[in-house]
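Table 4 source record.
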Amino acid sequence: MTEMIGKRELNKARKRAEIVRIATLLFLEHGYAATTMSAIADALGGSKATLWAHFSSKEELFSAVIDMHVGTFSRDIDEVLTGQSFSRPALRRACVRFLDCLLNVNSVLLYRLVVSEGERFPEIKEMFYESGPVKMRRAIASFFSTRFDAEEAARLTQFTVSAVTGYRTDILLRPTKATKAQHEAFVDNFMAHITFPPEKDVTTD
């Protein structure tokens, strides 16, 4: 009986993942407004009842799409931040990885979707902001707090996030695609011009 329940839950999780995958493609290709639950059900090739059994609304399904994307994004960033104490080399690695993630094709498409439809559908802007930028700022602030007090960590987090996301916006507006070398040159320029405050005393008696 336990084995049957386990298989049932596994199949349910696989079906949910497939729904989110298909929904992601449709949301990113057609936008939030133009993507209906009926269209998603048709793309899945199953009954609408199956879709509704997993997600009670389009908002809930879009939230799952964001969670999946942000989860992947967060894991990539965590690889260079988790367990790391502040240092210039560690910050450089984090900024380069941050840019790589932000300029990933799906990241760009999702960002454009939220920006273009966020005014008409504020719920998607709120979902994206809470799941993405807020979590990202916490991770970066935690990294800075290993060497600086809370106020300085918050200031450095704001500078870093603003610089990197601002560069991302500039890149997306350019008529030609920037190279990896240009991304790294930007990070090096940012690192050369940012002034770090005195480090807090982290020694113990």
